[in-house]
Amino acid sequence: MTGRPEIAIVVQRYGTDVTGGSETLARAVAERLAHPFRVTVFTTCARDYVTWRNELPEGTSRVGGVEVRRFRVEEERDLGSFNRFSEPLYSAPHTAEIERDWLRRQGPYAPRLVDALQTRHGDFAAILFFTYLYYPTYWGLRVAPERSILVPTAHDEPPLRFSLYQEAFAAARAFAFCSAPEEQLVRSRFPIEGRPSAVAGIGIDAGTQPDVERFRIRYGATRPYALYAGRIDAGKGCDEMLDHYTRYRRDCRGGAELLLLGRLAMPEPMAPGVRYLGFLSDEEKMAAMAGARAIVCPSPYESLSIVLLEGLAQGTPGLVSARSPVLKDHVVRSKAGLYYRDAGEFEEALDLVVREPGLRSAFAEP
User: Fold this and answer.
1) HEC letters along the chain
2) Predicted pLDDT at 320
3) pTM of the complete model beyond 0.90
């Protein structure tokens, strides 16, 4: 091997227009490693994780200075059919063969990606796999386990109990975790002792000072507001957040608006005080975060939240679900936010940061 050592990164989706925590983390790591290493990303042609539909061209390209090899997904996913197949498996005994069938149905089923990794694995000093859950990680870890590093981005969800993931976690040579609670969860489920591991966290680029006033004028954000950014989906806790906000709006006269940014994966909320702004540029998103009274993170299933970290970098406190051990731990240790267990606590916490603007400044202090 001559020149810069070669590193491979395996991730289910990849690109500047691909949203998702693990995908964003994978791209950030790839671009930061691209100077000291020659980085090759193995990924799919899918942009959407719901269907895994092939939307991006197959083949090799360069994205942000990184070589990206895309492979077709051989089977699209019908989410309703997949969920009907999955639900009984979460609570009833089943075979390893059924679990592998489940893995294929879940997708992205891209066997040619795994074949290409098999062909080239000897070129790489290390292979990093992002997210334990998907087909490319499970089968890719078998290709060269002695040089494989798993970044699980794991949270407590039913598939984590499947026996096939005992095999996946047994195959990895080393682990990188986003947070201490994530590491604790993995260690409680899998015997990973004796192998290298580290809580690496997630790096955030705070960027330049955002133009909050320009954002407020363009989007008519003249009143205090809380912000949710990400996939707007019941699975991300958005239904519960909207229910809690409705109660807050009813009980707190003159309360904050709730602004939503991101892709709709549920009907657009039409409740009073809630406004959906769609996708914003990175500059506008940072301005929206900097101007908010709080960044709401309602999902109970997180290994860490990039949106929360971006908000904290702008000096905006987090308002997070206590059902996420990771997010609760982060706002407690950082002293940069509040957590809520139910609608009453959500209402009190949001009302507090709106009524006491000085509290926002206190949360932002180092």
Assistant:
1) CCCCCEEEEECCCCCCCCCCHHHHHHHHHHHHHCCCCEEEEEEECECCCCCCCECCCCEEEEECCEEEEEECCCCCCCHHHHHHHHHHHHCCCCCHHHHHHHHHHHCCCCHHHHHHHHHHHHHCCEEEEECCCCHHHHHHCCCCHHHEEEECCCCCCHHHHCCHHHHHHHHCCEEEECCHHHHHHHHHHCCCCCCCEEECCCCCCCCCCCCHHHHHHHHCCCCCEEEEECCECHHHCHHHHHHHHHHHHHHCCCCCEEEEECCECCCCCCCCCEEEEECCCHHHHHHHHHHCCEEEECCCCCCCCHHHHHHHHCCCCEEEECCCHHHHHHHHHHCCEEEECCHHHHHHHHHHHHHCHHHHHHHHCC
2) 96
3) no
pLDDT digits (tens, 9 = 90+) for 85-120: 999 999 899 999 999 999 999 999 999 999 999 999
**Phi-psi region for residue 352, left (φ > 0), alpha (ψ -120 to 50) or beta?**
alpha
Domain residues of the chain, as ranges?
6-199, 212-364
The pLDDT of residue 129 is 98
Rounded Cα distance between 352 and 319, Å, is 11
Same fold, 6-199 and 212-364: yes
- Structural fold of domain 212-364: Rossmann fold (3.40.50)
- Determine the residue type at 227: L
Q: What local confidence, expressed as pLDDT, does residue 195 receive?
A: 96
Answer yes or no: are the C-beta atoms of 240 and 324 closer than 8 Å: no
Burial class (CB in 10 A: 0-12, 13-18, 19+), 4: middle
What values do phi and psi take at 255, rounded to 5? -70, 175
How large is the average pLDDT for residues 333-346? Answer: 94
CATH class of 6-199: alpha beta
Buried b (16+ CB within 10 A) or exposed e, 310-332: bbbbbebbbbbbbbbbbbbbbbe
* Residue 204: pLDDT band with limits 50, 70, 90: confident
